[in-house]
Amino acid sequence: MRKKIVAGNWKMNKNFLEGIDLAKELVEKHQPSESNKQLVVCPPFIHTAALSELFSATSIELGAQNCHTSDKGAYTGEISAGMLKSLNAKYCLVGHSERRANFFEDNQELFQKCKQLLANDIRPIFCCGEMLEDRREGAYFDVIEDQLEVLWKLSKTDFQKVVIAYEPIWAIGTGETATAAQAQEVHAFIRSQVAKKMDVTIAENTSILYGGSCKASNAIELFSKPDVDGGLIGGAALQADEILAIYNAL
Ligand code: PEP
After folding, report:
1. pLDDT at 41
2. Distance from the CA of 73 to the center of ligand 1, in angstroms?
3. Taking a C-beta distance cutoff of 8 angstroms, is the pair 190, 151 a contact?
4. Is pLDDT above 90 for 125?
5. Angle between helices 180-197 and 140-152 (to 10 degrees)
6. CA spacing 20 to 30 A to 189: which of 21, 23, 40, 228?
C-alpha cells in the first residue's frame, strides 16, 4: 500500500527560535494515525540539527528543501545529501518551482540531486507542475511529461523511493487551489506515465502529493481523490494547528 504523506515546506520562514517553537508545538500536538500516514517537516537548514533531535522519539520525519549535486567540496554555502543524512533527514524536495525559476535548476541538475539523495537513503520529493499559460493553452500534460523525464533515468530500485509532488505554479502561494478534479486528472496522468516508464505495480505504489494553496478547508476534498496521496504544504505549514488538520484529512 502506498504511503500517504503530508509534507510541510517552511521555505525561508521562521528564525531559529520561532522554528523551534513551531516544531515543539507539532511534537506536542501531533497524534499519528495509521502507520502508512506520514507527517514530514522540511525546515530551512538552520533548523535541521535541532529538529532532528526534537523529532527523534516521534513519528514526525525530518525533511530538507534542497541539497547540492556533489557529495563534498568547494561549494561555499551549499549543503550535501550526506550532511542531511547525518542529521537523519529522510526526505528532501527536488525541483520546487521556486528553485527552478530563481536558481535556474535544469533536468541534469535535478537528476544529480536525486542521485545524491538516493545514495544517502533520503527520499526525493520531486516537484513538477505547469505555469498558468501552459494550462490555458492546454499544454500542461506536455510540460509535466518533460519534467518527469528526470525520473525515468533512475533505476527501478531507486525510483521506488521517489515521491512525486504535483504543484501547479499558478496555485502556489496564490490562494487559488486546483479543484479536486483538476488535481485528480493530473495525478492520474502522472501515475499512468509511471506505469508506462516503470511498471504498473511501481505506479500503484508511488505516492503522488498535491501542492498549491492546500489548507485544512480544502484538504479533505483533495485527498478524497483516488490518485491524490497527500499534500506538499507551503503557507499552511507555518501554523501547527493548520498542518495537523491537513494531516488529519489524510
Ligand atoms: C509550495 O510552495 O510547495 C506550496 C505548496 O506552497 P503553498 O501551500 O503556500 O501554495
Report:
1. 98
2. 32
3. no
4. yes
5. 40
6. 40
- Which residues are designated catalytic? 96, 167
Confidence of residue 184 (pLDDT cuts 50, 70, 90): very high
Does position 149 have pLDDT exceeding 90, yes or no?
Answer: yes
Q: Which helix (H) or strand (E) holds 7?
A: strand 4-9
- Asked if pLDDT for residue 35 goes beyond 90, the answer is no
Write out residues with Cβ below 6 Å of ligand 1. Answer: 9, 167, 172-173, 211-214, 232-236
Domain locations along the chain = 4-248
The correct answer on CATH 3.20.20.70 for the domain covering 4-248 is: yes
Burial (0-12, 13-18, 19+ Cβ within 10 Å), 210: buried
The stretch 139-167 carries a mean pLDDT of 98
Cα angle for residues 7, 105, 168 (degrees, 5° grid): 50
Q: Give me the pLDDT at residue 196, please.
A: 98
* Residue to substitute in 93, 127, 170, 213 for testing ligand 1 pocket (most ligand atoms within 8 angstroms of CB): 213
Q: What is the whole-number distance in angstroms between the Cα of residue 74 and the centre of ligand 1?
A: 32
> 230-233 and 4-9 as β-strands: parallel, antiparallel, unpaired?
parallel
**Residue 136: its pLDDT value, please?**
93
Q: Taking a C-beta distance cutoff of 8 angstroms, is the pair 162, 206 a contact?
A: yes
Cα 25 to ligand 1 centroid, rounded to whole Å: 21
Mutate to test the pocket of ligand 1, among 97, 218, 228, 232 (most ligand atoms within 8 A of CB): 232
pLDDT 10s digits, 82-104: 999 999 999 999 999 999 999 99
Cβ atoms 227, 205 nearer than 8 A: no
